[in-house]
Amino acid sequence: MTDPFTIVRYRVRPGRGDENATLVRAVFDALHAAHPDGVRYATLRMEDGVSFLHVARGATTVLRDLDAFRAFGAAIAERTEEPPAFASATLVGEYRAEVSAPVGAASS
After folding, report:
1. What is the pTM of this model?
2. Stretch 53-62: mean pLDDT, rounded?
Protein backbone atom coordinates (compact mmCIF):
# COMPACT_ATOMS: atom_id res chain seq x y z
CA MET A 1 0.00 0.00 0.00
CA THR A 2 1.25 3.49 -0.83
CA ASP A 3 1.25 6.51 1.45
CA PRO A 4 -2.03 8.39 1.49
CA PHE A 5 -2.28 11.86 0.06
CA THR A 6 -2.73 14.82 2.37
CA ILE A 7 -5.15 17.39 1.00
CA VAL A 8 -5.25 20.89 2.49
CA ARG A 9 -7.74 23.54 1.41
CA TYR A 10 -8.06 27.11 2.69
CA ARG A 11 -9.05 30.61 1.64
CA VAL A 12 -6.91 33.67 2.31
CA ARG A 13 -8.31 37.10 3.04
CA PRO A 14 -9.13 39.36 0.07
CA GLY A 15 -5.99 40.99 -1.28
CA ARG A 16 -3.69 38.33 0.23
CA GLY A 17 -3.69 35.82 -2.66
CA ASP A 18 -0.49 37.07 -4.30
CA GLU A 19 1.32 37.19 -0.96
CA ASN A 20 0.28 33.61 -0.23
CA ALA A 21 1.31 32.46 -3.71
CA THR A 22 4.75 34.04 -3.21
CA LEU A 23 5.19 32.18 0.08
CA VAL A 24 4.08 28.93 -1.57
CA ARG A 25 6.53 29.42 -4.46
CA ALA A 26 9.35 29.84 -1.91
CA VAL A 27 8.48 26.40 -0.52
CA PHE A 28 8.74 24.91 -4.01
CA ASP A 29 12.06 26.69 -4.60
CA ALA A 30 13.35 25.11 -1.37
CA LEU A 31 12.07 21.68 -2.42
CA HIS A 32 13.78 21.99 -5.81
CA ALA A 33 17.04 22.92 -4.05
CA ALA A 34 16.79 20.04 -1.54
CA HIS A 35 15.71 17.34 -4.04
CA PRO A 36 14.02 15.16 -1.38
CA ASP A 37 13.23 11.59 -2.43
CA GLY A 38 9.68 10.25 -2.36
CA VAL A 39 7.93 13.62 -2.13
CA ARG A 40 4.98 14.47 -4.36
CA TYR A 41 3.56 17.94 -3.79
CA ALA A 42 1.42 20.36 -5.76
CA THR A 43 -0.41 23.56 -4.90
CA LEU A 44 -3.29 24.91 -6.94
CA ARG A 45 -4.72 28.42 -6.78
CA MET A 46 -8.42 28.39 -7.48
CA GLU A 47 -10.15 30.67 -9.96
CA ASP A 48 -11.31 33.05 -7.22
CA GLY A 49 -7.64 33.94 -6.56
CA VAL A 50 -7.89 33.46 -2.80
CA SER A 51 -8.61 29.74 -2.38
CA PHE A 52 -5.72 27.27 -2.42
CA LEU A 53 -5.52 23.50 -2.55
CA HIS A 54 -2.36 21.60 -1.58
CA VAL A 55 -1.92 17.92 -2.45
CA ALA A 56 1.02 16.11 -0.90
CA ARG A 57 2.35 12.60 -0.49
CA GLY A 58 5.44 11.63 1.48
CA ALA A 59 6.09 15.28 2.27
CA THR A 60 5.11 15.89 5.89
CA THR A 61 8.52 15.56 7.55
CA VAL A 62 10.40 17.08 4.63
CA LEU A 63 8.17 20.16 4.58
CA ARG A 64 8.42 20.74 8.32
CA ASP A 65 12.21 20.83 8.01
CA LEU A 66 12.20 23.62 5.39
CA ASP A 67 12.70 27.21 6.56
CA ALA A 68 10.46 28.36 3.68
CA PHE A 69 7.62 26.12 4.87
CA ARG A 70 7.96 27.43 8.42
CA ALA A 71 7.83 31.00 7.03
CA PHE A 72 4.72 30.07 5.01
CA GLY A 73 2.99 28.67 8.08
CA ALA A 74 4.09 31.39 10.52
CA ALA A 75 1.20 33.79 9.85
CA ILE A 76 -1.27 31.45 8.17
CA ALA A 77 -3.97 32.17 10.80
CA GLU A 78 -3.69 35.92 10.20
CA ARG A 79 -3.55 35.50 6.42
CA THR A 80 -6.56 33.20 6.06
CA GLU A 81 -10.26 33.92 6.04
CA GLU A 82 -11.09 30.20 6.03
CA PRO A 83 -8.46 28.24 8.00
CA PRO A 84 -6.72 25.20 6.54
CA ALA A 85 -8.87 22.07 6.45
CA PHE A 86 -6.91 18.82 6.28
CA ALA A 87 -8.03 15.51 4.82
CA SER A 88 -6.37 12.23 4.00
CA ALA A 89 -7.13 10.55 0.69
CA THR A 90 -6.16 7.44 -1.24
CA LEU A 91 -5.67 7.31 -4.97
CA VAL A 92 -8.49 5.69 -6.92
CA GLY A 93 -6.96 6.32 -10.33
CA GLU A 94 -4.89 8.78 -12.30
CA TYR A 95 -3.85 9.53 -15.83
CA ARG A 96 -0.74 11.61 -16.38
CA ALA A 97 -1.30 13.42 -13.12
CA GLU A 98 2.06 15.17 -13.36
CA VAL A 99 0.44 18.59 -13.02
CA SER A 100 3.57 20.59 -13.83
CA ALA A 101 4.13 18.81 -17.14
CA PRO A 102 2.56 20.31 -20.26
CA VAL A 103 -0.34 18.38 -21.77
CA GLY A 104 1.07 15.83 -24.20
CA ALA A 105 4.44 15.54 -22.44
CA ALA A 106 5.57 12.10 -21.36
CA SER A 107 5.17 11.46 -17.64
CA SER A 108 7.69 9.55 -15.57
Report:
1. 0.85
2. 89
